[in-house]
Design brief:
heterodimer, A: 451 residues, alpha/beta, Rossmann fold, 4 domains, five-stranded antiparallel sheet, 18 strands, globular, B: 335 residues, mainly alpha, 14 helices, 56% helix, binds iron/sulfur cluster
Chain lengths: 451, 335
């Protein structure tokens, strides 16, 4: 077993990577606020990585209440969806998610009676949270998490219960909680760690109980000292450890975080469970506690609405299915010079073509960038400076992969290990010639013939 | 229990762009890197002016000016947008100028620039496409074509106003006298109070300018580090075997070695992109400099060493593909 050492300032890290501006300031100090219940929400039937759900309620004008399951699937990799407000369903529609997928969605028109903001906040973060789950069977915990429709809230939206049920032959010895939040601008996880530590710790303990592991680690970037402090206090008397890691992008990448905290290397093409680790976002842990201890499904999530293009940046607890328009209006609207809407953070987020897109379980933020934030430089020739190589966390040669991608030279791309790329964007960030390296690689990965 | 919020007015509809991530970029630009190189060249230029007077500035001016004009001309001929603003032509010109003797005839600089830009760069397709360092292509061309007016004998002018040029350059002394004993002292070599090409004599200035570029990450640190390592090790061995030969320190601070290690070997376009490749390039350059100085008819081997390593660069890149963290990528998955 690897021993964990710790220093007051972030000790663990991974090689290479970049230091983009943090830009956490706008939303950092804003207490989580509850979005007033919108007049209508649109609940996409597919919000996770995996098989889409079938609607359980096909008849329009059916009354539903918060937390009622409205879509489910029999597939192994799936997560049910629930009504996030009280109201009446309407006919299913097709919508487009930020990642470009077209999915079916069930609209719900808000009814008269809705839980108040205080009730919602308390239900999510307040009150007492158990730290002892020894009386709960692992199976029972996993079932509760599955029924609650939990997915990774860090962005990948992989069904949580699948992660907690490793295939036979794999032993898990460590649960790693990801509180790195390495994307610039985003502060949702930070706020959770400052406001709802008890829920996070409780969720971690529940998940650990489900997998029967004793080694539980929470990793936080050292640019969030307050979160580190508060979490350290909260874990006292439990088996959970808090580790501060260096502030560097992409410290929150699963493989980077495992390397930084546990000094284990996940094989290329492999998963954390190949080295005995399950990684869970801190937000997911808080939601897990709510699912297991309170029996509440995932209906709301904290989302950071921030950037110079938003008048009053905030961290908002919003019901799944509310539109980004409502979020932006709640935050004082867009500024005149808002130029790009990014679902998620600026390094890996998708641009929104329109604000009338529903918030999904995986949406960690809305970053509104202005003209000024966006790079205007034209692409020029590669000067082979090797800067992209110097920052690639996976030790690839991005310039060569992108070149191969441009000429569709798949053999060459393979020789340079194209498929290993995790699309973190460090290379494109760093390139002085403004070459869209990761964009080219991403396209090539989609186009390359499979052999 | 509260009422649902009333629908609010639409936000203003700004111009929105859709683009793939990342949506942020560092402030580094190619022009900025070239500017860093030019700033890095300032100390050597100042020292050259100190030792060689106005001649130094005139040489550098001729080369920078003609390189930029030729680049403009060639780009216009190829119907390409002028890339003059990226500063790469100015860098090539400055390095070419600083590698000339103070008294080189004006046409040597112009012809050198023409060859540097035309054959060294544009023929390959412009910035980023060339295999050989343009300045070294130009320098080697004029060295061979005007061997009388800018060969090693031309450096010595007994009745010149500057004192340093009344002596042969240190490496020529070493070559002719076949011994290291007659060389100027190490301190003179270090601060550049000796004869030689304009930019090469002051080791101190090379180190200061080089460190600036390395700290700004506009030059890969591994290349000069490898160069010093390569030359130091091999010349130390030689020194131990034959105490009469140049010492390791004389090799390091004499001649154009450091100028080449910091300013020419680090030319990104013509040196490897991989970390291990940069080490190999540097070490190879250092060793070649030694071999040429020791065993060829030329007293100095920087230009040839650079060109040889340039030729090897594509191969080095291919040999040194790093293994990804987590091991080589498995074959593309069947779907
Ligand atoms: S950072 Fe850009 S210019 Fe430099 S080697 Fe990579 S692709 Fe080429
Ligand atoms: S996007 Fe891919 S190639 Fe670029 S730095 Fe990240 S892992 Fe490396």
């Amino acid at each position: 077993m690897t021993t964990l050492t710790d220093a007051p300032h972030g000790s663990g890290t991974f090689p290479r990577g970049i230091h983009p501006p943090h830009r956490k300031k706008p939303a950092e100090a804003c207490t989580i606020e509850v979005l007033p219940t919108p007049a209508q929400v649109t609940i996409p039937l597919l919000q996770h990585t995996g098989a889409p759900n079938e609607p359980l309620i096909v008849k329009p004008r059916t009354d539903v209440t918060v937390g009622q399951k409205i879509g489910a699937s029999d597939a192994f990799i799936s997560a049910p969806v629930h009504a996030s407000i009280n109201g009446q369903t309407a006919r299913a529609t097709a919508i487009t998610l930020p990642n470009g997928r077209h999915v079916n969605a069930i609209p719900i028109k808000a009814g008269e009676e809705q839980p108040s903001a205080e009730e919602l906040y308390d239900d999510h973060f307040g009150g007492d949270w158990p730290t002892d789950y020894s009386d709960r069977e692992p199976k029972e915990i996993i079932e509760a998490i599955k029924e609650a429709g939990l997915v990774g809230l860090g962005g990948a939206a992989f069904p949580t219960y699948v992660k907690l049920s490793p295939p036979p032959g794999k032993t898990i010895d460590t649960l790693l909680l990801n509180g790195a939040e390495c994307e610039p601008y985003l502060t949702a996880d930070y706020r959770l760690m400052v406001e709802a530590q008890a829920a996070i710790v409780s969720g971690a303990l529940a998940a650990a109980r489900a997998m029967q592991v004793d080694n539980i680690v929470i990793a936080i970037e050292d640019n969030k000292p307050q979160a580190v402090d508060k979490m350290r206090q909260a874990v006292q008397g439990t088996a959970v450890q808090v580790i501060a890691v260096k502030t560097k992008y992409p410290q929150g990448g699963e493989k980077q975080l495992i390397l930084a905290t546990l000094k284990r290397i996940v094989p290329t093409g492999g998963l954390p469970l190949d080295v005995g680790v399950v990684v869970m976002n801190v937000g997911t842990a808080a939601a897990a506690a709510r699912a297991v201890a309170r029996g509440k499904p995932l209906t709301h999530r904290v989302i950071t609405v921030t950037g110079a293009g938003v008048n009053h940046p905030k961290n908002v607890l919003a019901p799944v299915g509310a539109t980004f328009t409502e979020l932006v209006n709640f935050c004082g609207g867009l500024t005149e010079d808002a130029a790009r809407l990014v679902a998620g953070g600026p390094m890996m987020g998708f641009t929104l073509g329109s604000l009338d897109t529903p918030v999904t379980k995986g949406a960690s933020g809305l970053t509104v960038l202005t003209q000024q934030d966006l790079r205007k430089a034209e692409e020029t020739a590669c000067v082979r400076c090797g800067r992209c190589v110097d920052v690639c966390p996976l030790n690839l040669v991005p310039t060569k992969i992108a070149l191969a991608a441009r000429c569709q030279a798949w053999d060459l791309a393979k020789r340079y290990h194209m498929v290993a790329c995790m699309e973190c964007g460090c290379c494109a960030y760093e390139c002085p010639a403004s070459i869209p390296l990761v964009q080219l690689i991403r396209m090539a990965k989609a186009q390359a013939p499979r052999d | 229990m509260s009422e649902p919020a009333p629908a609010q007015a639409d936000p203003p509809k700004p111009q929105l762009h859709v683009a793939p991530s990342p949506h942020l970029a560092s402030t580094a630009t190619t022009g900025g890197m070239m500017l860093d190189v030019l700033i890095g060249l300032l100390p050597v230029t100042v020292m050259a002016a100190y030792y060689f007077g106005l001649h130094a500035l005139i040489q550098v001016g001729i080369c920078v000016g003609s390189c930029m004009i030729f680049e403009l001309m060639f780009n216009a001929m190829r119907g390409k947008p002028a890339s003059i603003l990226d500063g790469s032509a100015a860098v090539a010109g400055a390095i070419l100028g600083l590698s000339m003797p103070w008294n080189a005839p004006w046409y040597a600089g112009v012809v050198g620039s023409l060859v540097a830009m035309g054959i060294g760069k544009i023929i390959f397709g412009g910035l980023g496409q060339n295999i050989f360092n343009p300045a070294m292509v130009g320098r080697t061309f004029v060295m061979i074509s005007f061997s009388v007016s800018i060969g090693s004998a031309a450096y010595v002018v007994h009745d010149a106003p500057m004192e340093v040029v009344t002596q042969a350059s240190p490496l020529s002394v070493a070559k002719e006298a076949a011994g290291a004993a007659d060389l100027p002292g190490l301190w003179a070599l270090f601060i550049g109070n000796v004869n030689g090409s304009l930019g090469e004599t002051c080791s101190l200035a090379c180190i200061i300018g080089g460190l600036w570029m390395v700290l700004r990450r506009s030059a890969a640190w591994r290349t000069p580090a490898g160069s010093v390592l390569g030359l130091a090790v091999i010349s130390l061995i030689a020194q131990l075997i034959d105490p009469q030969s140049l010492t390791m320190l004389q090799h390091l601070v004499g001649g154009a070695f450091l100028f080449g290690a910091f300013f020419i070997a680090t030319d990104p376009v013509t040196s490897p992109v991989t970390p291990r490749g940069q080490w190999i390039f540097g070490i190879g350059y250092g060793v070649l400099v030694f071999l040429i100085r020791q065993y060829s008819a030329y007293p100095e081997g920087v230009a040839f060493a650079i060109l040889l390593m340039n030729a090897l660069t594509p191969l080095i890149n291919r040999w040194t593909i790093p293994t990804p963290v987590g091991g080589p990528a498995p074959a593309l998955v069947k779907k």
